[in-house]
Amino acid sequence: MSSMHEDKELIARTLKGDKKAFEMIIVRYQQPMLNYIGRMVGERELALDFTQEVFIKAYSSLRSFEPQYKFSTWLYKIASNLLIDFWRKKKISTLSLDQPEGENPNSLPLQIPDDKPSVVKKFELCELRKLIEQALGALPSNLRELFVWRHVNGLSYEEMAEIKGLPIGTVKNRVFQAKEMLRRLLEKNP
Amino acid sequence: MNCLTLEQIYLFLEKELPFSQSQKVEEHLATCAKCREAAEARKVFLQCAESLPDLEIPADFSKQVMAKILPERVSLLGWIIAFAGGFASLVLALFILFVVNAQPLPSLLLSYSRSLLNSIGNISLLVFKFFKLVLLSIKILPQAGKELFKSFSSLTTLISPPVQVIIITAVCLLFLSLFYGFGRKFLSGEK
Questions:
Q1: pLDDT digits (tens, 9 = 90+) for B8-34
Q2: Virtual CA dihedral for A115, A118, A121, A125, nearest 10 degrees?
Q3: Using the beta-carbon criterion (under 8 Å), do B45 and A27 form an inter-chain contact?
Q4: Which of A10, B46, B117, B167 has its CA at 20 to 30 Å from residue A26's CA atom?
Q5: How many domains does one find in chain A?
Q6: Whole-complex ipTM
Q7: Residue B55 is nearest to which of A44, A151, A179, comparing CB atoms?
Q8: Minimum Cα–Cα distance from A135: chain B residue
Q9: Do A71 and A143 fall into the same domain?
Q10: DSSP state, A105?
């Protein structure tokens, strides 16, 4: 049975009052959700609280879920909105996807730059992973979110476009910006 | 083929290019050392990003969430313990009263039930009076309304229409600003 069908089955059982079914949904999505939220908020404890809240919200509004969509997409949308609300309440500037902050993305090279020592050559893989984790925090939240969805959670561009309600081309472009910005941050690392 | 753009390299590495374009990119990479090196570096970078470790999740995480979702059911044993605790407290209270008052238990219970009955009587009287007051105010309200209306109509004969319009607009603006202010305070938590 495909993952989407299994989700639908579990949702149907939950709506009929089978609590175990929803627990199975949590077990299925807790890790990707924590990986995403953790990279967005930067603190594990806070990320755990947020992840709990996402599932509680999903449970309470499960009847509004439309089965023609993917459950995971719906769950990521809940999480993304929750994070936006959190930042808004904390008055941390959240940026529109149409207006990225920080380094001007237009200044990113489109062509391959001339010979520079590659960051990959400078560091061991394990160290590079640590550096990526650190540099993620310096990315604008809107770009970070798309980067994490694509390269940590493995979401497709179509799914990301559906979650954010944006054209696929825009999402692809933002993810490209995020990757090159991240690489530049790593290159700057002494 | 010209040198590849960085976006093309990423899309190629992510297998997002159509087959024909992907083949062209592959052919170009076979001949261009600069693009090949750039693609290699980005490949490793993506592999690293895609293999970031999972964040540690508590083993009982799903149970914790379910406990928050569902109100905990009290088991039969829990009910028995609560009932026994309540009963023991009652017995203890009676015993303390007996010791403090140094009276036989039946007369003690009788005197307390009397005072309890008295209190119930007093409270009922109070409730009765409150309802009477409510009924009376309901009777008075239409009369008061009429009087208020009369006083307003006499005011309108004294004030000219343009002044009336100014007063009404000012009052409306005052109410609007009050509601807007309260709305902002309560909805956005503004201090």
A1: 999 999 999 999 999 999 999 999 999
A2: -160
A3: no
A4: B46
A5: 2
A6: 0.79
A7: A44
A8: B49
A9: no
A10: G
Closest-CA residue in chain B for A119?
B41
Tens-place pLDDT, residues B84-95: 999 999 888 877
Structure tokens at B114: 């009397």
A77 and A35, same structural domain?
yes
Task: Give A103-142 pLDDT, tens digit per residue.
Answer: 455 455 666 665 555 555 556 777 888 899 989 999 999 9
Q: Which residue of A has its CA nearest to B68?
A: A56
The CA distance from B10 to A119, in Å, is 16
Do A110 and A84 lie in one domain? The reply is: no
Given an 8 Å threshold on Cβ–Cβ distance, is B49 in contact with A27?
Answer: no
Residue A12 domain boundaries: 3-89
Residues in A touching B62 (Cβ below 8 Å):
23, 26-27, 30
**Cα distance between residue B61 and residue B72, in whole Å:** 16
Q: Three-state DSSP class for B181?
A: helix
Strand partners, B5: A111
Contact A52, B64 (CB under 8 A): yes
Check if B70 contacts A (Cβ < 8 Å): yes
What residues pair up with A111 in beta bridges, in sequence order?
A: B5
The residues of chain B scoring below 70 in pLDDT are 1, 71-74, 182-191
